């Protein structure tokens, strides 16, 4: 992961747990993509933040329904910056 995109951890996870959860999520996204239902970048970035322990499940849910406008803006800015750098959610 690019360190500049990291946030403080609010949920303790081991590097092994993070790697396993990230791999599982990538497989899920690939399966959905094959069906033509791949999540958008917003959802993928938010989920990756939860997987890395940067968000709680409750925070993730609130951000996904755009109930936290400042977090919505932060995620959109993060996505734009990733694209500027030629990166994707997978690089998180």
TrEMBL record:
This is Antitoxin VbhA family protein. It comes from the Bacteria.
